[in-house]
Amino acid sequence: KAGVTQTPRYLIKTRGQQVTLSCSPISGHRSVSWYQQTPGQGLQFLFEYFSETQRNKGNFPGRFSGRQFSNSRSEMNVSTLELGDSALYLCASSLGGSYSYEQYFGPGTRLTVT
Amino acid sequence: LAKTTQPISMDSYEGQEVNITCSHNNIATNDYITWYQQFPSQGPRFIIQGYKTKVTNEVASLFIPADRKSSTLSLPRVSLSDTAVYYCLVGDKGAGFQKLVFGTGTRLLVSP
Hints:
The complex is a heterodimer.
Chain A (H helix, E strand, L loop, with lengths): L4 E3 L2 E4 L5 E6 L6 E8 L3 E9 L2 E5 L6 E5 L5 E5 L8 E8 L9 E2 L3 E5 L1
Chain B lengths: L8 E5 L4 E6 L9 E6 L6 E6 L2 E4 L4 E4 L5 E6 L8 E9 L6 E4 L3 E6 L1
Parallel strand pairs in B: 1-10
Antiparallel strand pairs in B: 2-7, 3-4, 3-8, 5-6, 6-7, 8-9, 8-10
Protein backbone atom coordinates (compact mmCIF):
# COMPACT_ATOMS: atom_id res chain seq x y z
CA LYS A 1 0.00 0.00 0.00
CA ALA A 2 1.21 3.47 -0.81
CA GLY A 3 1.90 5.72 2.15
CA VAL A 4 0.63 9.20 2.88
CA THR A 5 1.75 11.71 0.30
CA GLN A 6 1.98 15.46 0.68
CA THR A 7 2.47 18.11 -1.97
CA PRO A 8 4.39 20.24 -2.38
CA ARG A 9 7.34 19.17 -0.25
CA TYR A 10 8.83 22.65 -0.06
CA LEU A 11 7.26 26.07 -0.44
CA ILE A 12 8.46 29.65 -0.10
CA LYS A 13 5.85 32.38 0.29
CA THR A 14 5.78 36.06 1.17
CA ARG A 15 3.98 37.60 4.13
CA GLY A 16 0.35 38.32 3.33
CA GLN A 17 0.02 35.65 0.69
CA GLN A 18 -2.05 32.52 1.07
CA VAL A 19 -1.04 28.89 0.57
CA THR A 20 -2.77 25.56 -0.02
CA LEU A 21 -1.19 22.27 0.98
CA SER A 22 -2.42 18.89 -0.18
CA CYS A 23 -2.51 15.46 1.45
CA SER A 24 -3.43 12.09 0.00
CA PRO A 25 -4.12 9.49 2.71
CA ILE A 26 -3.48 5.77 2.68
CA SER A 27 -6.12 3.96 0.67
CA GLY A 28 -9.06 3.06 2.90
CA HIS A 29 -8.25 5.63 5.58
CA ARG A 30 -11.11 8.04 6.22
CA SER A 31 -9.50 10.36 8.74
CA VAL A 32 -6.93 13.01 7.94
CA SER A 33 -5.28 15.18 10.59
CA TRP A 34 -2.98 18.13 10.16
CA TYR A 35 -0.15 19.21 12.45
CA GLN A 36 2.32 22.08 12.59
CA GLN A 37 5.84 21.36 13.77
CA THR A 38 8.29 24.10 14.80
CA PRO A 39 11.44 23.99 16.93
CA GLY A 40 9.89 26.29 19.51
CA GLN A 41 6.38 24.88 19.84
CA GLY A 42 6.94 21.26 18.85
CA LEU A 43 4.12 19.29 17.26
CA GLN A 44 0.78 21.09 17.44
CA PHE A 45 -2.57 19.75 16.31
CA LEU A 46 -4.44 21.84 13.76
CA PHE A 47 -7.56 19.85 12.90
CA GLU A 48 -8.93 16.48 11.90
CA TYR A 49 -11.35 15.62 9.13
CA PHE A 50 -13.39 12.46 8.97
CA SER A 51 -15.78 11.69 6.13
CA GLU A 52 -15.55 15.27 4.84
CA THR A 53 -16.46 16.80 8.24
CA GLN A 54 -14.18 18.54 10.70
CA ARG A 55 -14.28 16.29 13.75
CA ASN A 56 -11.61 17.80 16.02
CA LYS A 57 -9.91 21.15 16.15
CA GLY A 58 -6.85 22.68 17.79
CA ASN A 59 -6.20 26.20 18.97
CA PHE A 60 -5.13 27.88 15.74
CA PRO A 61 -6.65 31.11 14.38
CA GLY A 62 -9.23 31.11 11.63
CA ARG A 63 -6.53 31.84 9.04
CA PHE A 64 -5.90 28.10 9.14
CA SER A 65 -8.62 26.10 7.45
CA GLY A 66 -9.03 22.77 5.80
CA ARG A 67 -11.34 20.53 3.92
CA GLN A 68 -11.67 16.92 2.93
CA PHE A 69 -12.99 15.55 -0.32
CA SER A 70 -15.15 12.49 -0.94
CA ASN A 71 -12.05 10.44 -1.82
CA SER A 72 -10.57 11.36 1.62
CA ARG A 73 -7.90 13.60 0.14
CA SER A 74 -7.48 16.74 2.18
CA GLU A 75 -6.26 20.27 1.71
CA MET A 76 -5.11 22.81 4.25
CA ASN A 77 -5.19 26.53 3.55
CA VAL A 78 -3.40 29.31 5.37
CA SER A 79 -4.44 32.85 4.49
CA THR A 80 -2.61 36.11 5.17
CA LEU A 81 0.66 34.37 5.93
CA GLU A 82 2.82 35.59 8.82
CA LEU A 83 6.50 34.97 9.45
CA GLY A 84 5.55 32.75 12.38
CA ASP A 85 3.72 30.37 10.05
CA SER A 86 7.07 29.08 8.82
CA ALA A 87 7.03 25.43 9.85
CA LEU A 88 6.84 21.83 8.78
CA TYR A 89 3.21 20.93 8.13
CA LEU A 90 2.44 17.27 8.61
CA CYS A 91 -0.55 15.32 7.48
CA ALA A 92 -1.54 12.00 9.04
CA SER A 93 -4.17 9.48 8.04
CA SER A 94 -5.92 6.77 10.00
CA LEU A 95 -8.89 4.44 9.77
CA GLY A 96 -10.72 6.95 11.93
CA GLY A 97 -11.80 5.11 15.04
CA SER A 98 -12.83 7.40 17.86
CA TYR A 99 -10.28 7.90 20.65
CA SER A 100 -7.64 5.88 18.80
CA TYR A 101 -4.68 7.78 17.42
CA GLU A 102 -2.82 5.17 15.40
CA GLN A 103 -1.92 7.51 12.58
CA TYR A 104 0.39 7.30 9.61
CA PHE A 105 2.26 10.46 8.74
CA GLY A 106 3.41 11.89 5.46
CA PRO A 107 6.86 13.43 4.98
CA GLY A 108 5.52 16.94 5.48
CA THR A 109 5.52 20.22 3.60
CA ARG A 110 8.24 22.66 4.63
CA LEU A 111 6.75 26.17 4.41
CA THR A 112 9.01 29.20 4.61
CA VAL A 113 7.43 32.64 4.88
CA THR A 114 9.66 35.61 4.06
CA LEU B 1 -5.03 23.07 27.82
CA ALA B 2 -2.79 20.96 30.02
CA LYS B 3 0.77 20.39 28.94
CA THR B 4 1.92 16.86 28.17
CA THR B 5 5.48 16.63 29.40
CA GLN B 6 8.42 14.34 28.75
CA PRO B 7 12.13 14.44 29.65
CA ILE B 8 13.97 16.52 27.08
CA SER B 9 16.69 13.96 26.42
CA MET B 10 18.03 10.57 27.43
CA ASP B 11 21.29 8.75 26.74
CA SER B 12 21.75 5.01 26.52
CA TYR B 13 24.08 2.33 25.20
CA GLU B 14 23.37 -0.40 22.72
CA GLY B 15 21.71 -3.43 24.26
CA GLN B 16 20.24 -1.57 27.23
CA GLU B 17 16.56 -1.14 28.06
CA VAL B 18 15.24 2.43 27.83
CA ASN B 19 12.16 3.73 29.62
CA ILE B 20 10.66 7.07 28.55
CA THR B 21 7.87 8.59 30.59
CA CYS B 22 5.11 10.99 29.63
CA SER B 23 2.95 12.95 32.05
CA HIS B 24 -0.58 13.71 30.81
CA ASN B 25 -2.68 14.69 33.80
CA ASN B 26 -5.60 16.03 31.72
CA ILE B 27 -6.14 13.04 29.48
CA ALA B 28 -9.63 12.53 28.11
CA THR B 29 -11.53 9.64 29.69
CA ASN B 30 -11.96 7.48 26.61
CA ASP B 31 -8.72 8.22 24.80
CA TYR B 32 -5.88 5.90 24.05
CA ILE B 33 -2.26 6.84 24.71
CA THR B 34 -0.13 6.63 21.61
CA TRP B 35 3.63 6.84 21.10
CA TYR B 36 5.55 7.87 18.02
CA GLN B 37 9.17 7.88 16.85
CA GLN B 38 10.55 10.61 14.63
CA PHE B 39 13.78 10.74 12.67
CA PRO B 40 15.13 13.98 11.20
CA SER B 41 13.34 15.16 8.06
CA GLN B 42 10.61 12.52 8.43
CA GLY B 43 7.10 12.42 9.78
CA PRO B 44 6.48 10.63 13.09
CA ARG B 45 6.12 6.85 12.94
CA PHE B 46 3.57 4.94 15.06
CA ILE B 47 5.14 2.70 17.71
CA ILE B 48 2.47 1.52 20.12
CA GLN B 49 -0.90 2.42 21.61
CA GLY B 50 -2.71 1.46 24.81
CA TYR B 51 -5.61 2.37 27.10
CA LYS B 52 -4.62 0.86 30.45
CA THR B 53 -2.22 -1.57 32.16
CA LYS B 54 0.36 -3.01 29.77
CA VAL B 55 0.58 -3.43 26.03
CA THR B 56 3.43 -5.14 24.17
CA ASN B 57 4.23 -5.46 20.50
CA GLU B 58 7.29 -6.57 18.56
CA VAL B 59 9.20 -3.33 19.15
CA ALA B 60 8.10 -1.87 22.50
CA SER B 61 6.02 -2.12 25.64
CA LEU B 62 3.71 0.51 27.07
CA PHE B 63 2.93 0.72 30.79
CA ILE B 64 -0.09 2.75 31.95
CA PRO B 65 -0.99 3.10 35.65
CA ALA B 66 -4.59 2.90 36.85
CA ASP B 67 -5.06 6.69 37.01
CA ARG B 68 -3.80 7.01 33.40
CA LYS B 69 -2.11 10.32 34.18
CA SER B 70 1.22 9.07 32.92
CA SER B 71 2.62 6.38 30.68
CA THR B 72 6.00 4.75 30.12
CA LEU B 73 7.35 3.58 26.79
CA SER B 74 9.86 0.76 27.21
CA LEU B 75 12.33 -0.06 24.44
CA PRO B 76 14.15 -3.35 25.09
CA ARG B 77 17.77 -3.76 23.97
CA VAL B 78 18.11 -0.52 22.01
CA SER B 79 20.37 -0.24 18.98
CA LEU B 80 22.02 2.73 17.28
CA SER B 81 19.08 2.96 14.90
CA ASP B 82 16.77 3.76 17.83
CA THR B 83 18.39 7.20 18.11
CA ALA B 84 15.42 9.48 17.45
CA VAL B 85 12.88 11.74 19.12
CA TYR B 86 9.99 9.99 20.87
CA TYR B 87 6.59 11.58 21.41
CA CYS B 88 3.48 10.60 23.32
CA LEU B 89 0.08 11.69 22.01
CA VAL B 90 -3.15 11.96 23.99
CA GLY B 91 -6.53 13.60 23.69
CA ASP B 92 -7.13 16.51 26.04
CA LYS B 93 -10.49 16.77 27.74
CA GLY B 94 -10.92 20.47 27.15
CA ALA B 95 -14.27 22.00 26.40
CA GLY B 96 -15.69 21.85 22.92
CA PHE B 97 -13.72 20.06 20.26
CA GLN B 98 -11.37 17.30 21.29
CA LYS B 99 -7.77 18.47 21.11
CA LEU B 100 -4.92 16.13 20.36
CA VAL B 101 -1.81 17.01 22.31
CA PHE B 102 1.68 15.78 21.53
CA GLY B 103 4.18 15.58 24.34
CA THR B 104 7.22 17.81 24.36
CA GLY B 105 9.35 15.02 22.91
CA THR B 106 12.32 13.05 24.27
CA ARG B 107 15.53 12.97 22.25
CA LEU B 108 17.11 9.54 22.73
CA LEU B 109 20.78 9.09 21.88
CA VAL B 110 22.07 5.53 21.73
CA SER B 111 25.84 5.11 21.79
CA PRO B 112 27.98 2.06 20.94
